[in-house]
Design brief:
This protein is of the alpha+beta class. The protein has two domains: 2-179 and 345-405, no CATH class; 198-281, Roll (Pdz3 Domain). It has helices at 22-31, 34-42, 47-67, 69-78, 95-119, 145-149, 153-183, 208-212, 231-240, 286-299, 334-355, 363-375, 384-405, and strands at residues 2-4, 7-12, 15-20, 126-132, 135-142, 185-187, 198-203, 219-223, 226-227, 245-251, 257-263, 277-281, 325-327.
Length: 407
């Protein structure tokens, strides 16, 4: 352990923890303000609202996975790592935006706990920054469990709720700013021609698509000289023709038209697609794409959670569509700002609702565990909260594994 002007470095390979006094000073400053005290009193009973939203979304996703073959197949093509908010490992999470969004999310989350703890004079042992192999990945706030247990239920509730609530507040702010940015966009051109087809979003490593030269953002237009207009239709044709040779026509990003004979494998592994790509139906009117996307903010805001990396032709700031718009406010840099706002919204929202689940070790787990202990006195070895936690662990596991369980 080294000390330098109050800064302590703790090595826990591959992590480096930098303990600093600056966070503690900031927490005390905000905690002693009217805003800090009001925020602490405001959030005492909000954990159940965040939990209810989390349960609604998880049960909704389970319903979709049970009833929709295409949804399950799409998730299998992405792979199980698509459930992890880890840039570089999750194929739909861009490294740059994902890393920035994740660091901001963790800092905001931990700051919430620390500030509200200081409002109630609960001791915060230390705070600081976490580095992974020298790269900042987040922050930490150490509140010892003994200190937390000394508080009243209302105080503990406010401290535990502050982390997820901070994430939800930042998610809401980012969501609103993203809407304002989208509202500043105007189409600058229309895609010419009347082509229809399926857009390739990602190419898997060592996949059939990679071997034949299919590239990201290519448009698959024909199979065996027949036009293709629907993802499900393409998947069915590929499955029905396993072991045969098909003729595939597509248009690359540079508008180059390619036609190749493609030998399909006789079979595919469980959970794998034939081509090894992720796909989306194509749209070719930038004005329509913009109007549809803006309407989602007002009619179905949860649909905005679908990452632009999975629906390139439906998102005005995606790699495929951003060149067809200009922003009256941000000019040519709008795609960077829009993507950054999206991933801050996306990561904060998911971290916020996940931490509100009544599962041991999560903020929601500690909140509901304390509540049930206070309300239900029992001498049984298995406590009511233990049963509740196990139920939710099973639900989360189902949400992650169902695409591979159901065929």
């Amino acid at each position: 352990m080294q000390k330098n002007l109050g800064i302590n470095f703790e090595l826990k390979l591959p992590l480096i923890l930098i303990h600093t006094p600056f966070g503690l000073r900031f927490f005390d400053t905000v905690a002693n303000s009217r805003i800090g005290k009001t925020y602490a009193s405001f959030n005492i009973y909000l954990m159940p609202l965040i939990t209810a939203l989390a349960v609604f979304l998880i049960l909704g996703s389970l319903l979709v996975l049970f009833s929709n073959d295409s949804a399950r197949e799409g998730i299998r093509e992405i792979g199980p790592q698509g459930n992890l908010l880890i840039p570089g490992l999750n194929p739909i999470l861009p490294w740059t935006y994902g890393w920035i969004g994740l660091v901001i999310t963790i800092i905001i989350h931990e700051a919430g706990h620390g500030i509200v703890a200081r409002v109630y004079k609960t001791k915060v042992e230390s705070t600081g920054i976490v580095l992974f192999l020298g790269i900042p990945i987040g922050a930490f706030v150490n509140i010892q469990q003994d200190e937390l247990n000394k508080t009243t239920f209302k105080q503990k509730s406010a401290i535990l709720t502050a982390g997820p609530l901070n994430n939800m507040v930042l998610a809401g702010i980012s969501f609103g700013l993203l809407f304002l940015l989208i509202s500043s966009l105007t189409p600058v051109s229309h895609i010419q021609g009347d082509e229809t087809g399926i857009t390739v979003l990602t190419i898997g490593e060592n996949s059939l698509a990679q071997s034949i030269g299919l590239s990201k953002n290519s448009l698959i237009t024909h199979i065996n000289a027949e036009p293709i207009e629907d993802v499900d239709e393409l998947r069915k044709i590929l499955r029905d023709n396993l072991g045969t040779t098909i003729e595939m026509k597509w248009i690359s990003e540079g508008d180059r038209e390619l036609i190749k004979s493609v030998k399909l494998p006789p079979s595919i592994s469980e959970g794998k697609g034939v081509l090894g790509v992720t796909l989306t139906d194509a749209f070719f009117d930038p004005a329509l794409v913009l109007d549809n996307y803006k309407n989602l903010f007002l009619t179905n805001p949860l649909a905005i959670l679908m990452p632009p990396t999975l629906q390139q032709n439906l998102v005005p700031y995606s790699d495929s569509m951003s060149s067809y718009y200009s922003s009256t406010i941000f000019g040519p840099v709008f795609p960077f700002i829009a993507n950054l706002l999206f991933w801050i919204w996306f990561i904060n929202f998911n971290v916020g609702i996940f931490n509100a689940l009544p599962i041991t070790m999560l903020d929601g787990g500690q909140w509901y565990g304390t509540l049930l202990e206070n309300k239900i006195k029992t001498n049984r070895k298995i406590k009511p909260f233990t049963i509740l936690s196990i139920v939710f662990v099973i639900i989360v596991i189902l949400a992650f594994t169902l695409p591979w369980v159901l065929r």
